[in-house]
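Q: I'm a student working through a structural biology exercise. My instructor gave each of us a protein and asked us to get a predicted structure, then write a short paragraph describing it. Mine is histidine kinase. I'm not confident about reading structure output yet, so if you can add a plain explanation after the tokens, that would really help. Here is the sequence I was given:
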Amino acid sequence: MIGSTNRTLGRILIGLELVALVGFNGDEAVRRLFLHDQATPGGIAFFVTGAVISALALLRRRYPGAIAQFVASAFAVSLICSAVGFFVKPAAPFGGDAETVALALLIGAGCHRLRSLPAAAVATVGGLALVTAPMLRYGRDSTTLTLAVFWTILWGCSVAIGLMLRDADARREAALAAARNRERLALARELHDLVAHHITGVVVRTQAAQVVLAEGPEQELLREIEGAGAEALAAVRRLVTMLRSPEPTVPLTSDGLVEAVEAAADGHPNVDLRLAPNLDDLTVTPETVSTVHRVVLESLTNVRKHAPDARTVTVTVEPTTGQGEPLLRVEVRNDGVRPRRPAGGYGLVGMRERIDALDGKLTAGPEDDEWRVRAELPLPDGAAEPEKGTAL
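A: Happy to help. First, here is the predicted structure for histidine kinase. I'll explain a few features afterward.
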């Protein structure tokens, strides 16, 4: 219900933006292009400036990863237009409503979406562009000062709204993080109290059976069962430790992935692991670490089950970018033949659910005569993109 309400409100705001910008630009077009007393070269330049900045303001919703570029371009165009107006007097009759509204939208979006320092720069440069524009373009009389005051108020409102939205997002993320932490702790308790308890019982009974059947032919099988139970118990304890970790992020290390791949590729000698050289310096959330391990393990298990004739299997883990956002890409590909009839398992379904929960993307299917499973998981802003990985 809340999500539907938010989507409806978002559509209404987009519609209001579109109506306002189209209306103001239409009014400017009529006045600047068709009215003889306002169809001056300066007036036409101001109309083109408003139209360009309005287009950038509308595109920010279509390309949210390029907000910084849109804001910088809009400020540059506006300041250049103001500089031209300063040297050409009188540049044009009063106007610029479309440009002002578009700049206010971009300033609010920058304060909302960008990191702290870029957002502060957007607020400062945006205020400079809006406050000085009337005096640079139209002179310094009482009318232009009044216009400058009005545009200053509009600038302050856009910054305030952007910061309010930024604070709301931070509060929502904090609430989601707290909810996820509660779920992790609850799951850790269940794993410790139930799963680990039962596995321990299996191991103890197996050890007891080895004592009773000390000379029996079942010794080898019992040792294998004990070893498998001990490994499962250790894995559960590692998972419980990770779930209980108070740290918001943990390093994704090459050794962890190597262990995961070797365990899953037991009996498959043709696995080529390619990791970014400084992947161990990258920090991601525990959920992302768990998801990366699961994707690698499940993909290699599927290779053993469904493509046993594969000559080479390549696992690549590297940071990358998509639509201006940092991502962690996990790709497993093999040159074997996958059966056309679905196997009926839930491996890909489980991977997709995990990745969707992290706002990531999963693709699986044939590509260039290979079967590829590719997962792209979001990384924190500012994560550096290392050089390409090397084969191990």
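A: Here are two points you could use in your paragraph. The chain has three domains: 2-175, 182-244, 250-391. The beta strands are 250-251, 271-275, 283-284, 313-322, 325-334, 361-367, 370-378, 390-391. It's a good idea to check both against the output above yourself.
Q: Great, thank you!
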